[in-house]
Amino acid sequence: MKRLLQLFLLILVCSAASAQMKDTLRVLCVGNSFTYVGDAHKKLVDLAASQGHFIRMNAQYVGGFTFARHLQRDETLNAIERPSPSDAFDYVFLQNQSQLHARYGSNPKQYPYVLADAKELSGRIRQYSPGAIIFIESTWSYPASDFGGFGSLEAFDRLSDKGTEALAKACKAKVSYIGRAFALARVQCPDIPLLADDAKHQTDLGSYLKACVNYLLMYGEPFDGNASPCGLDPDMTARLRAVAQRSVLGR
User: Fold this and answer.
1) Residue 2 pLDDT more than 70?
2) How confident is the model at residue 11 (pLDDT cuts 50, 70, 90)?
3) Rounded to 10 degrees, what is the CA torsion of 247, 68, 198, 159?
4) Which CATH number do you get for residue 196?
5) Within 10 A of 56 (CB to CB), how many other CB atoms are there?
6) Which domain holds residue 97?
7) In this structure, are residues 128 and 80 in contact, taking their beta carbons and an 8 Å threshold?
8) What is the average pLDDT value for the chain, to the nearest integer?
9) Which of 88, 151, 159, 227 could disulfide-link to 83, CB 3.0 to 4.6 Å?
């Protein structure tokens, strides 16, 4: 009897928690270290929960991976192809190797495989989740390796956006302008460290900013006062949420 009562109470608690959620969305994140360092995908889930949204997250990432390598990875393909009609993904975020989109933006004819891989990956996703809204991420620029080989943060950002926009248009996808949020944060919040000591990968705060951008793209609504700082400095995360809102919502 005691066990039955405990089970009943657990069901009540779970039901109450579910009732507080406005909706449930199934999300797939495909990427590399720019996704898993700082657990941006987990921060996205936490942010959404603090705003009353439930996300069922599936994240596929391996350090240094390109779209092409994900297309050869069984775990990624299984995640894409597994959904039944009732479990298809609602949103998909695709994050490529950090320099490829800028290279494609600088010379599409020299890097045709970047487009071919993006089209194949997005096409595979639509085959199994036909209603999914796909975002291709334009990630941040960084100082390491002569600014990724592009000479300046500004050139890196410009070419990354240009390449990502062309890829998204060809794939009938949307662009997540994460790099623009990072660029705005560099100006408005210069005291907040977004990049780690390697001057390339994101800090936990950089991952938080990325999660904020993707949250706003999904839900299209500003954060309320209950937004989770995900265990980070509340003042800094509040300022980063404001930067993300200006970048995505224009307010």
Assistant:
1) no
2) very low
3) -50
4) 3.40.50.1110
5) 13
6) 23-248
7) yes
8) 92
9) 88
Report pLDDT digits (tens) over 229-247.
999 999 999 999 999 999 9
Residue 131 and residue 9: Cα distance in Å, rounded? 37
In 3D space, the residue among 77, 113, 79 whose CA is nearest the CA of residue 96 turns out to be: 113
Dist CA 118 CA 109 (whole Å):
15
Calculate ∠ Cα 169-80-129, nearest 5°.
Answer: 60
Residue count of the chain, please give it: 251
pTM, to two decimals: 0.90
Domain count, the chain: 1
Q: Is residue 15 part of a domain?
A: no
- Residue 81's alpha-carbon distances to 35, 71, 117, 124, 181, in angstroms, are 21, 12, 17, 8, 32
What tokens appear for 207 in the block?
A: 């991952």
* Token pair recorded at residue 235: 């003042």
Using the Cα atoms of residue 101, residue 92, residue 33 and residue 52 in order, give the sign of their dihedral. Answer: positive
d(CA 201, CA 36): 10
Q: Cβ–Cβ contacts within 10 Å for residue 93, how many? A: 26
Task: Give yes or no for a contact between 181 and 161, defined as CB atoms under 8 angstroms apart.
Answer: no
- Using only the alpha carbons of the chain, give its radius of gyration: 19
Neighbours of 81 (CB within 10 A): 12
Identify whether 17 is part of a domain.
Answer: no
To which H or E segment does residue 164 belong? Answer: helix 153-171
Residue 28: strand pairing partners: 58, 92
Residue 12 in any domain: the answer is no
HSE at residue 157, side-chain half, CA atoms within 13 A, is 15
9 assigned to some structural domain: no
Residue 161 token pair:
């956006």
